Amino acid sequence: MRNLAPVLTVTAVLIAIWYAAVIPMNQQWAQDQARRAGQDLSFTALVADTMSQQRPRLPAPHQVAAELWNSTVVEELTGRRGIVNTGSLSNRSLVYHGWVTLSATLLGFAIGSVLGISLAIGIVHNRAMDASIMPWAIASQTIPILAIAPMIIVVLNAVGITGLVPKAIISTYLSFFPVVVGMVKGLRAPDHMQLDLMKTYYASGTQVLAKLRLPSSMPYLFASLKVAIAAALVGAIVAELPTGAVAGLGARLLSGSYYGQTVQIWSALFAAAILAAGMVALISLIQRATLKRMGMAT
Amino acid sequence: MIVLHKTGGVQWAGMMLALLLAVAVGGTGDLPFSAVAAILVTGLIFLAPRGQINWLVIAAMAAGIGISALALLPFAQSTLLFWAMVLAVWLGAWLLVASIAESPRLPGLPGRAQSLLAPLGFGATLLWLWEITVRALDVPRVILPAPSLIWDRLIRSTDILWIDFVQTFVKGALSGYAIGVGAALVFALLVDRSDFLRRGLLPVGNFLAALPIIGTAPIMVMWFGFDWPSKAAVVVAMVFFPMLVNTVQGLAATDAMQRDLMRTYSASWTQSLLKLRLPAAMPFIFNGLKIASTLALIGAIVAEFFGSPTRGMGFRISTEVGRLQLDMVWAEIAVAALAGSLFYGILALAERGVTFWHPSQRKR
Question: Which residues of A touch B298 (CB under 8 A)?
Fold first, then answer.
């Protein structure tokens, strides 16, 4: 809690800068409107106008917050297609789009972390894998997968794989790498003394893995899982761009940019931010509980 | 049985079994004799006793597998016989990579080149498997073109690729990278002067660095237009926070003892920054630079999906996908991967030069 005051201050300053930037960013349109109407715009009127435009270049924070509230709670509770009236999530609400993105993210993240952990175990136990796979795992990340995501989606669509799986593949690709790197480091964390002790116990490779290497890699695992889930979310969002803006936060971004609905773009962006923060916080919680039980909490 | 206990013994046994299967299924009638002979010779060489001639054995095995792999290419077909041969060659290549990885390191420059051999062998195997699978299964070009086709396209359209490269990488990614990294460094120095700011900015910066900032691309395109400035702006937004967080962390990495020493020297803030804290921060700064380098290329390419002039890698990828010219798309990907790897490699080399004292850079 020592950091609470500084963090709140920094956040407040950021929001203040945002508000201050809203006025110059939006004043062009406000002044054009006033000139057309033949009016003179006072400063207070200008500020009031820039804060409440329909399609601002930069929406004010409260507009984004209101849009977030309207497109989640209000839409679901009172909307014609909301969950209260129809029993299913409204396709105009961010809850629905967020869930579409989240499910792809979680599937990709799950596959990616399992793949990453198994690759790391292979790399630690097999010299040939260590020498040949590790450089390619690094090289694979310099290929801008996000940039080729559209092609993968389109090609998979062409072979008849649609829906969740193509998006999850992109997420998997982005999330396996941090897990591999972190787990290789973690599985190699036990020092010679500990490994020697296992040897004197006549422990087999599997036993060393289960009793020594895996437990001591836990802090590394959680650190890399946090990075991986954030990367998986980015992957899922970008993977939604080329599917023709059907569903998902990425689709909301794209349709917002087509129709100039800046408030919609910003609210989708913030919904994504909230999702990312929530998932990272969840992993932190699991991490704290696990490390505490293992007696490794710091 | 002794063979099985050698490194790669299992792969060797698999290779020989696959070869036997191939011969049993169809003799060598439909396949080039050279492929079968070369792989058989490779298998026999593996059994040779090793001493000083280790590298000679490996070179001979590489030649055998190479000959066999090339000889198989024109005969690609989807028969059991053929797949058995492919399996044999693949296991042979695996055996080769394992043998290289197990060989003792030579001292000096050859030793450094040696560490590249195993990954190169692995990469060549993957490319060969890709090529031969596409040929044997007759995969349509609109789904997955063969590497040879992609190479062909790469050679034929270097001019277009170069224009795209300049537009996206040099103008968009590099300029944004320079601005973003520079701004983050300056800002980190400012933040560093106040403990309050540092404690506030680190959690916020960490949070912002984990966000899908790539989503700001449509906004940036709206603000800065279609040409490269909007791409550079996305790159700036993407690289700023990871770089800031890493630098601030790095500047805090010195311990109290070292700072006290600087105080006893009565060093000024600038002096202790230049002589102690910046050098100590370098591993962190380079970590940030490396993360930012991959982010920069991604940001520049993805931002082009939201609107761009009629050139650029992202533009080319999205339009050529629409025209089902997948060989062109893969050529762009190859260029992007090459540029990204080179960028990363240059940074890694610079890191080795600057932070030669750090434990992670010591020779293993």
Answer: 144, 146-147
Q: Which of residues 22-81 of A touch B (CB under 8 A)?
A: 57
Residue B24 falls inside a structural domain:
yes
Distance CA(B147)–CA(B168), nearest Å, equals: 24
Structure tokens at A89: 């999530």
Say whether both B128 and B168 belong to one domain.
no
Note whether residue B170 is domain-resident.
yes
Residues contacting residue A82 through CB under 8 Å, at least 6 positions apart? A75, A76, A89, A90, A93
Q: Look at residue B272 and tell me if it is in a domain.
A: yes
- Do B127 and B169 fall into the same domain? no
C-alpha distances in Å from residue B183, one per residue of A5, A43, B169, B247: 25, 32, 20, 11
Q: Are residues B130 and B58 in the same domain?
A: yes
Q: Is A184 in contact with A124 (CB distance < 8 Å)? A: yes
- The pLDDT tens digits of the residues spanning B106-165 come to 666 566 677 777 778 888 888 888 888 888 887 777 778 888 888 888 888 888 889 888
* B123 is a domain residue: yes
Q: In terms of domains, do B65 and B159 share one?
A: no
Q: Give the domain-ending residue among B139, B166, B195.
A: B139
Contact, B81 vs B26, CB < 8 A?
yes
* Domain-terminating residue out of B104, B139, B174: B139
Residues 6+ apart with CB under 8 A from A16: none
| Inter-chain CB proximity A10 and B340 less than 8 Å | no
Average confidence (pLDDT) over B79-105:
75
Contact A155 B144 (CB under 8 A): yes
Same domain, B192 and B235: yes
Please indicate, yes or no, whether residues B206 and B93 belong to a single structural domain of this protein. no
Give pLDDT tens digits for A61-120: 888 888 888 777 777 777 666 666 666 666 667 778 888 888 889 999 999 999 999 988
CATH number for the domain including B314? Answer: 1.10.3720.10
Number of domains in chain B: 2
A241 contact B CB<8A: yes
Nearest by Cα to B218 from B311, B295, B302, B294 = B302
**Residue in A closest to B221 by C-alpha:** A257
Cβ pair B102:A226 closer than 8 A: no
Structural domain harbouring B116: 2-139
Q: Are the Cβ atoms of A241 and B305 closer than 8 angstroms? A: yes
Structure tokens at B48: 């040779």
Measured CA angle at B251 (ends B245, B253), to 5 deg: 100
Name which of A150, A226, A249 is nearest B317 (Cβ-Cβ).
A150
Q: How far apart are CA B48 and CA B136, in angstroms?
A: 34
Chain A residues whose beta carbon lies within 8 Å of the beta carbon of residue B306? 254, 257
Closest Cα in chain A, distance from residue B126 (Å): 11
Which pTM value belongs to this model? Answer: 0.78
Is A143 in Cβ contact with B340 (below 8 Å)?
A: yes
Alpha carbon distance B54, B65 (integer Å): 17
| Pairwise CB contact (< 8 Å): B210 & A253 | no
- Residues B198 and B332 reside in one and the same domain: yes
Query: Could you tell me the two tokens for B286?
Result: 């380079």
Contact call for A230 and B200, based on CB within 8 A: no
